Amino acid sequence: MTKKSRLHVLFALAAALLAGGCAMHIPRLPDDPSVLEPPEEYLIGAGDMLSVKLFYTSELNEEVTVRPDGRISLQLVGDVPVAGRTPEQASKELRERYAGYLTKPDVAVIMRGFASQKVFVGGEVRSPSMVMIDGRTTLADAVFQAGGTLDTAAMSSVILIRHKPGGRDVYRVDLSGGLEGEDPVPVLRSYDVVYVPKSFIAEVGMYVDLYINRLIPKNAMFTAFYSINPVGNPDFGATTTP
User: Fold this and answer.
1) Domain range holding 125?
2) Which CATH number goes with the domain that contains 101?
3) Does residue 177 sit in the same domain as residue 68?
4) What is the mean pLDDT of each run of 10 residues along the chain (242 residues)?
5) Which of 77, 115, 152, 197 could form a disulfide linkage to 202, CB 3.0–4.6 angstroms apart?
6) Of the candidates 94, 113, 3, 134, the residue with the CA atom closest to the CA atom of residue 48
7) First to last CA, the chain
8) Is residue 69 included in any domain, yes or no?
9) What distance in Å separates the CA atoms of residue 235 and residue 156, rounded to the nearest whole number?
10) Is 241 within a domain?
């Protein structure tokens, strides 16, 4: 499955949760620093560029890019998983692997590029897209970078999907409360997915337009009886036109 296909699946998952009436069952974003703030140390991700330096065996030095499966390929030790680890953790893993081949396996992993620093924003925003994050990019920042929300957006029920080892976490974020300083707004992490759903009023308006306005015959009696006001509620007090 391609990255684009996986993204469509995640957006479909968020939409399905909401369409199935599960929005209120999605846990609210906790006021927990481990969720609201990024990890203290950078975690390597797919697409990142690394320098692998062996101090006593410079002929084995390599410049590598982390593959989509989270691994790098190196001389002697082959494929090594590094995604989700800090550079120091990756260095320790390589020292252990090179120890079987070298008498002085002193190795360091150095970051050269940060291609994995991106999140995905979809739903009721003006420009659903991949958004690059730089430094402390909050969920609100990413939504603004995606053009801001449409008038049909449910600002109080924004969905945040976050990957973790072995699965993913899903949270409901009250962005309207966050912008007013009443609710926490998380700092995003690489490959977070933000989905802004439609509001209930927008759903009612679409239902009215699709199932009533487009189906009712265009004659005086029906037009008068089903005079639909802008919020989608039938106005049964309308008078019949002659």
Assistant:
1) 3-37+117-196
2) 3.30.1950.10
3) no
4) 56 55 73 88 90 94 94 95 94 95 94 88 93 88 94 91 83 90 89 89 56 54 48 44 44
5) 152
6) 113
7) 61
8) yes
9) 29
10) no
Q: How far apart are CA 84 and CA 41, in angstroms?
A: 11
Are both 224 and 105 inside the same structural domain? no
Q: Six-digit token pair at 180?
A: 């007013």
Same domain, 122 and 192: yes
In a shared domain, residues 26 and 76: no
The answer on 82 and 171 residing in a single domain is no
Look up the pTM and report it.
Answer: 0.64
